[in-house]
Amino acid sequence: MLYGPMTHPQLLGALGRAGHSSKVLITDGNYPASTGAPASAERIYLNLAPGLLTVSDILEVLKRTIPIEQAGIMIPAADASGAEAPASIPAHDEYRAALPEVEFVEIPRWDFYDVAKSDDVSVVIVSADQRLYANLILTVGVRQPGE
After folding, report:
1. For residue 51, how far is the Cα from the chain centroid?
2. Coil/strand/helix, residue 97
3. Helices 90-98 and 55-62 meet at what angle, rounded to 10?
4. Residue 52 predicted with pLDDT over 80
5. Which of 38, 72, 92, 120 could be bridged to 137 by S-S, CB 3.0 to 4.6 A?
6. CB crowding 100-110: b at 16 or more within 10 Å, else e
7. Cα separation, 45 vs 10, whole angstroms
8. Which of 109, 105, 120, 146 has the alpha carbon at shortest distance from 28?
């Protein structure tokens, strides 16, 4: 029997195989998971129904399962019309509150797709989050002695 918050066998195995500096992509329900990540990344589908599960739900368990060194969030790309990006994206506010000690990097939409396709992404978790720009890339940190 397991202690700790996570019980999903496939996800536990994928995270166990990911090492320091590996990246974990948690997608919203709109993300092109089949083409927007390297073919070698293990895909885990947690999208049961619209809104179940959200990226925030998944993050709540992941942050108690792996050390997180950095978080990359997708922001709107520069608009050719000059339209301003939203001042705050609610999903991002939740992530920052959940990971107060973690460095956040804002990545414009098209650059985010490039980062998500890099060979460093070893795990893709597909959520059913309906919020726009709810995608998140976590960099696995180092487990400290005694943890």
Report:
1. 16
2. helix
3. 10
4. yes
5. 72
6. eebeeeebeee
7. 10
8. 109
pLDDT in tens, 109-124: 999 999 999 999 999 9
25's CB contacts (< 8 A; 6+ apart) are 37, 41, 116, 121, 123, 124, 125, 135, 136, 137
H-only helix segments in the chain:
9-17, 55-62, 90-98, 109-116
DSSP state of 68: E
Q: Where are the beta strands (DSSP E) in the chain?
A: 23-27, 42-45, 68-75, 103-108, 121-126, 136-140
Q: Is residue 68 within 8 Å of residue 138, measured between CB atoms?
A: yes
